[in-house]
Amino acid sequence: MALDFTAIDFETANSSSASACAVGLTRVRDGRVVETAGWLIKPPSGHDRFFELNIGIHGIRPEDVVDAPTWIDQLSALDRFVGDDVVVAHNAGFDMSVLRRACEATDAACPSYRYLCSLQVARKTYDLSSYRLPSVAAAAGFLDFAHHDAASDALACAHIMIDAAARAGAHDVVELAMLLGVRVPRLAGSDRLAPVAPAVG
């Protein structure tokens, strides 16, 4: 077995979990980062208003996503990147909620990924005054990244998991979760399909 997983991070346009406006992905194979990716997303209709609070956090504005792929357009690329990996995110409940809610908002089939929360792993691994992503990443030796840039956050999350696994002597993320007493739940997928555009004559 090997330390293989994909770290993921979403940014949202507003307080709706369905309002995904960016995603970052990092693939880890045998405990090493081998690929990163990230792109902007046009949030689903009805969830596409940008709040100033959110803009202030990640810097993404409505005009930045005008030509970005929609949630449905980019979902297959996201799914191809993840493949059969366990997905890891810092505060995974939020990111899995974005995935699930954006699929619900667009009638897309929701992938049934297994996932692990690096925040929970961090609480069992490090003795810190704050378990926010920058603080934990620093403890893992990953410094000076652009927090709230989705691709950078996913990369930081990946480095946290790599360091935590090394400290625990774990050979894969499921073993790491077992050693630390952390669950690896499965995202409840759906069999709904993306709507088919009507034929244009």
UniProtKB/TrEMBL annotation:
- PANTHER family the UniProt entry points to: DNA POLYMERASE III SUBUNIT EPSILON (PTHR30231), EXONUCLEASE (PTHR30231:SF42)
The residue ranges of the Exonuclease domain are: 4-170
Q: What is the lineage of its organism?
A: Bacteria, Bacillati, Actinomycetota, Actinomycetes, Micrococcales
> What is the designated name of this protein?
DNA polymerase III subunit epsilon
Q: Which InterPro entries match?
A: Ribonucl_H, RNaseH-like_sf, RNaseH_sf
An example molecular function term from Gene Ontology annotations: nucleic acid binding
One GO term of the cellular component aspect?
A: cytosol
Q: Which domain of life is it from?
A: Bacteria
Native species:
Microbacterium laevaniformans
